[in-house]
Amino acid sequence: xxxxxxxxxxxxxxxxxxxxxxxxxxxxxxxxxxxxxxxxxxxxxxxxxxxxxxxxxxxxxxxxxxxxxxxxxxxxxxxxxxxxxxxxxxxxxxxxxxxxxxxxxxxxxxxxxxxxxxxxxxxxxxxxxxxxxxxxxxxxxxxxxxxxxxxxxxxxxxxxxxxxxxxxxxxxxxxxxxxxxxxxxxxxxxxxxxxxxxxxxxxxxxxxxxxxxxxxxxxxx
Length: 221
Known about the structure:
It is a single chain. The protein is α/β, with parallel strands linked by helices. Helices cover 33% and strands 11% of the residues.
């Protein structure tokens, strides 16, 4: 039984009992037995564990976890301490530096952002070692779409940050006009120059939060 020890437990209780999720769980049991799967099974739901439903100010949507040893720990784009920055994360820090003049940090661990109210959610929450998108279309997309739909129901505005085409596909779930949506190309080296660099999303997020009377995110790590 998944225990997140916050309000997500109540909101997701029925979701964990649905047929698609039970099939997903059986698939994952075999995968974790036979292959190296990331993140650790204990870290799969860290995004929800660190950022409770009513604490979410911002949602940053990723695709699937990093697929090399020591990188993924349940928060999109984040890596554990003392791990080299993957190219996408390096580009995120470059844009953050250009936007808000925040120095490039020593660590790529984004847990501090999560605890400030940034839900760092991948659309797929697990991956097989060395094989990007290996757990795509196994059921995770249904689960994470449900999370976005639950946030869409909130009366308190949420800022949804959609980088890349996979994330932008979730835009159809965000129907309440009081929420905010920021889109750009993905920060990967293949697309960062097509609109991610220069998007200034970090400063735009904080401008919106201040307008809403909320505390801005301290993006320094």
